[in-house]
Specification:
single chain, alpha/beta, Alkaline Phosphatase, subunit A, 7-stranded mixed sheet, Ectonucleotide pyrophosphatase/phosphodiesterase family member 6, Alkaline_phosphatase_core_sf, signal, Phosphodiest/P_Trfase
Length: 469
């Protein structure tokens, strides 16, 4: 009788062990921190425990080169598609469609959900992952709640991107317990993908600058959040199956108050301008086609930003005026949608504004008060972003050479075990040094789960046979 009871107990224990499945595959958390420039991590007066903990236990790139223009939307969409702006369709934070005569206002206007902006775009990361039967969870990710072909990611209202609510991402740490719990509870059945954005750093630096007390506190706060998330994952032993990627699309640079210009000072007739789109570091100038040459000439020879004094010809000019067709190829931008006939670019620190012309965003007296912004040449040191990651996919305490924003997309899909659905602009050679040894030849999730379950069942059978004799 005792042997029979023993057999029953062993049988139940074996069944329980068999039912405790290993994680179905690798999980992925992408934490996008807006405005966290690479140079900010070198500030000696800020102790950054969270970021350091990621790099000591993982890998990082020397820096991340953003997509041009170094604004939010172009880089967000490059991250989620692996494409330059001229290929993914989001030309800038603010756009103007000449045909429909509507503008895109960075997610702050009802027109921003119009199909003209969102149709004919490449499949975003969340769609590709969702179609691969991966659970997708978005937190303040622009466009994630928008339908794409035959799928919609269900995003609760509190987690939907809303640019008009600047502080909406400040609840970030309150969501960490649900992130960790969901991975722990469901990873045996489905891979989990979390796309999370934090805007607190960029919002603060734009208003106060990185050298202000407010700026330093914002950077420290983001570091604390990264530390908190890691701690919660470690407590549940989830770094064996979960990869954490911390990334920023671009950095910010201080605005030089002595080098601020108004485009109106260059124009004889304001009526020749139909729309001004974007400001500060870059400006799109829309004109009637018949007026383009005259407006271009006026801007090109404008006295207010002409070289003065002991100007060195080797220096970058304060302001450069281009016909769109003549933009430098290195930006991968001139063939983008919604482009004007004329583009104005400023030297990092210099800005160009409007106060009377029809513009997106609308010009106002507060435009001069901004402390820091992005949008400048993506080769500029202060525009560089951050890439760091830890988890099974990545080497430990390792720094690679610089990577590009368009390189990251393929890494995220590779971690999830999903093939890119379209050709992209990233290079695998740029990122493979970040990955742990043998990562590319790892076994598929299905075979791991199946072999583990089979092994457990076989061991139980042997035990039962031994005890029955």
């Amino acid at each position: 009788m005792r042997n029979f009871r023993t057999l029953i107990i062993i049988f139940l224990l074996c069944c329980s062990a068999t039912l405790q499945k290993v994680p179905y595959g690798q999980n992925l958390i992408v934490l996008l921190i807006d405005g966290l420039g690479r140079s900010l991590l070198n500030q000696s007066d800020i102790e950054l425990f969270g970021f350091r903990h990621v790099t000591e236990n993982g890998a990082r790139a020397e820096y991340l080169k953003p997509t041009y223009p170094t604004q939010s939307y172009p880089n967000w969409m490059s991250l989620f598609s692996g494409l330059y702006a001229e290929n993914h369709g989001f030309t800038a934070d603010y756009m103007w469609d000449v045909k429909s005569e509507i503008g895109f206002h960075r997610g702050e206007h009802p027109n921003d959900t119009a199909q003209v902006w969102w149709s004919d775009r490449p499949a975003p990361l969340w769609y590709t992952a969702g179609k691969a039967n991966i659970d997708v969870h978005c937190y303040w990710i622009a466009g994630c709640h928008m339908p794409y072909v035959d799928m919609i990611v269900q995003v609760p209202l509190a987690r939907k991107y809303n640019a008009s609510i600047g502080e909406q991402t400040e609840s970030l740490p309150t969501h960490f317990p649900e992130v960790v719990e969901r991975i722990a509870k469901y990873q045996a059945y489905k891979q989990q993908l979390f796309l999370i954005r934090y805007a607190g750093v960029e919002n603060t630096l734009r208003l106060f600058g990185s050298n202000s007390d407010e700026g330093r506190q914002a950077i420290s706060r983001s570091d604390l959040y990264v530390h908190d998330l890691q701690q919660k994952l470690e407590e549940r032993g989830l770094f064996e199956s979960t990869n954490l990627v911390v990334i920023s699309g671009h950095g910010l640079r201080s605005v030089d108050s002595e080098e601020q210009f108004y485009i109106e000072e260059c124009l004889a007739d304001f009526s020749k301008i139909t729309k001004i789109v974007n400001s500060h570091s870059m400006m799109m100038v829309f004109t009637d086609p018949d007026e383009l040459d005259e407006v271009f000439f006026e801007l090109k020879v404008c006295d207010q930003w002409a070289p003065m004094g002991d100007y060195d010809e080797g220096d970058n000019p304060l302001v450069s005026v281009y016909r769109t067709s003549e933009l430098p190829e290195k930006f991968h931008w001139k063939s983008s949608r919604f482009m004007p006939g004329i583009i104005i670019m400023t030297r990092p620190g210099a800005t160009v504004l409007t106060r009377e012309l029809p513009s997106i965003p609308a010009g106002d007296e507060h435009a001069r008060d901004i402390r820091q912004t992005g949008g400048w040449d993506n080769d500029n040191v202060e525009m560089r972003g951050v890439f760091m990651a830890r988890g099974p996919a990545f080497k430990t305490n390792h720094e690679s050479l610089p990577i590009n924003m368009v390189d990251v997309y393929q890494v995220l899909l590779n971690i999830l075990g999903v093939e890119p659905p379209h050709r992209h602009n990233g290079s695998w050679a740029n990122v493979e040094d970040l990955l742990s040894s043998g990562w590319e030849s790892r076994t598929s999730p299905d075979s791991i789960s199946s072999s583990t379950s089979t092994a457990r069942s076989f061991l139980c059978l042997i035990l039962l046979c031994m005890l029955s004799y």
